[in-house]
Design goal:
Layout (H helix, E strand, L loop, with lengths): L2 H17 L4 H6 L22 E9 L2 E11 L2 E2 H8 L6 H10 L5 H14 L6 H6 L7 H12 L11 H29 L16 H9 L7 H13 L8 H11 L4 H12 L7 H15 L6 H12 L23 H16 L3 H22 L8 H11 L7 H23 L28
Antiparallel strand pairs: 1-2, 2-3
Helix pairs in contact: 4-18, 5-8, 7-8, 7-12, 8-9, 8-18, 9-10, 10-15, 10-17, 10-18, 11-12, 11-18, 12-18, 13-17, 14-16, 15-17
């Protein structure tokens, strides 16, 4: 962009800022639920769902009070669900079956479903070479989104929105998302980072988590604990209600009658936003900054002193935020973080990262009270993003893949909500906006004032 055009753009941006600003008082005057939230930050109810339940409060004597966080998949508490499979079997496939079909599978149903996931885990002939490897992107989310849209070209029933066809498409995308993700990273690492490239085929006998590690690593090796913790991370990120940004995007786009590939691409575009899918990257950047400025990361006093500087906007990104703390719904605890914590500790021992885990534990313990004292807020807890970045780092997963891993998990939730939207609603989602511009008389081109 040359300097003349750059100046033109900057001037026009000033016009947009002047034209598009609103007084905050107007939102209250017209009772506008900005961000689809009420004055207390609670989401506006716009639909019904069977897929999941997310709670951070409960009613007592007609009053809403804070409580320990609760997350249920199809009515099953996430803690009980994870306790049911951890150390016995991998849970991704079981949780996916539950979310898609509404009930827990028995042994034969689970094996049948795993068989279909494995058989569908293949890309069209030359797709990896012709689509993924060409025009490699620094942003893996963009690469995956592009691949999803291209896959529609290979589907003779891409626009068929009947439930059986949509279910087939969803199962297929759930199956191939690990391949799209890992292969997109290898293309980026080779063509942009100039590193060696290798492509490993998935093993039909392995779980989703095992195949991710197998395809990602040069020697295809991993430990059982590594695969177990990654599997747990995928299950915990799989679904989180109909109101989160990418799932609501799924609902909105589905309501328009669009096809599955376009719907998933829209959800991907939402998830890649740093306010939604990139939170754990912010946590990792903050932790790197703390390590640089705190001489003893096991010293609570030193950590507390530096966190105070972060809250005072004198350190890190100077936004006054301790990332990984707080949640829009959860108040006293995030059940996903609660489930995650002990397994993160076990992995830290295997990876000789106990010092890092201790630093995280100190911050998790002291940060909520510091935030509440500084900002006068209540109900602050560590969320799942607080630990997920550390887990991926200990698994030697590149940071470029943190949000794509989220997508590998969350496409299951998107699929469940897409099918539920198709079954239960035939109306296009269309909220209202209040126009604030007064009507004006049209002025002919020759009569308009000249500008410099």
């Amino acid at each position: 962009m040359n300097s003349e055009y750059k100046n033109y753009i900057e001037k026009k941006c000033e016009l947009c800022r002047e034209s598009d600003v609103f007084s905050p008082d107007l939102y209250a005057k017209y009772d506008v639920k900005k961000g689809l939230r009420d004055s207390k930050g609670n989401g506006v109810v716009v639909g019904l769902t069977h897929v999941s339940q997310v709670d951070g409060t409960r009613m007592e004597d007609g009053v809403k009070v804070q409580c320990q966080g609760k997350l249920c998949y199809r009515g099953y508490d996430i803690k009980a669900l994870c306790d049911g499979f951890v150390n016995k079997r991998f849970g991704f496939e079981e949780a996916a079956y539950l979310l898609l079909f509404g009930s827990l599978p028995n042994v034969s149903e689970l094996e049948e479903f795993k068989g279909y996931l494995s058989s569908e885990r293949k890309l069209p002939f030359t797709f990896t070479r012709d689509i993924i490897m060409k025009a490699a992107s620094k942003d893996i989310m963009n690469s995956i989104t592009r691949s999803v849209l291209f896959l529609a070209s290979y589907d003779k029933k891409a626009m068929d929105n009947t439930l059986p066809n949509v279910m087939r498409q969803c199962i297929y995308l759930i199956s191939v998302f690990p391949m799209l993700t890992v292969y997109s990273y290898h293309a980026y690492n080779h063509y942009i980072n100039d590193e060696s490239m290798y492509i490993h085929r998935p093993d039909p006998k392995l779980s989703t988590a095992e195949n991710i590690l197998r395809m990602l690593r040069p020697d295809k090796s991993y430990t059982y604990l590594e695969a177990t913790v990654l599997d747990l991370a995928l299950v915990l990120h799989m679904e989180h209600g109909g109101g989160n940004n990418s799932t609501f995007t799924t609902r909105v786009t589905t309501s328009s009658g669009s096809d599955t590939y376009a719907v998933v691409a829209a959800a991907m575009s939402s998830l890649k936003g740093p306010k939604h899918g990139g939170a754990n990257l912010k946590v990792m950047d903050m932790m790197d900054d703390i390590r640089k400025h705190v001489s003893d990361i096991g010293n609570e006093k030193e950590i507390r002193k530096y966190l105070a500087r972060i809250l005072d906007k004198k350190a890190f990104d100077r936004q006054g935020l301790i990332y990984g703390m707080g949640h829009a719904i959860y108040t006293l605890s995030d059940p996903r973080a609660e489930v995650f914590r002990s397994f993160v500790g076990k992995l830290a021992v295997e990876k000789h990262r106990q010092a890092d885990f201790e630093m995280y534990s100190i911050i998790e313990r002291i940060a909520p009270d510091m935030i509440m004292a500084k900002k006068g807020s209540t109900g602050v807890c560590a969320n799942v993003d607080f630990y997920s970045g550390l887990v991926y780092d200990m698994l030697d997963i590149p940071r470029e893949l943190y949000t794509p891993l989220f997508a590998i998990a969350r496409i299951v939730g998107w699929s469940a909500h897409r099918m539920e939207e198709l079954i239960t609603s035939n109306k296009i989602l269309r909220p209202a906006y209040i126009n604030m511009m007064e009507e004006r008389e049209y002025v002919d081109l020759e009569g308009r004032p000249r500008t410099s």
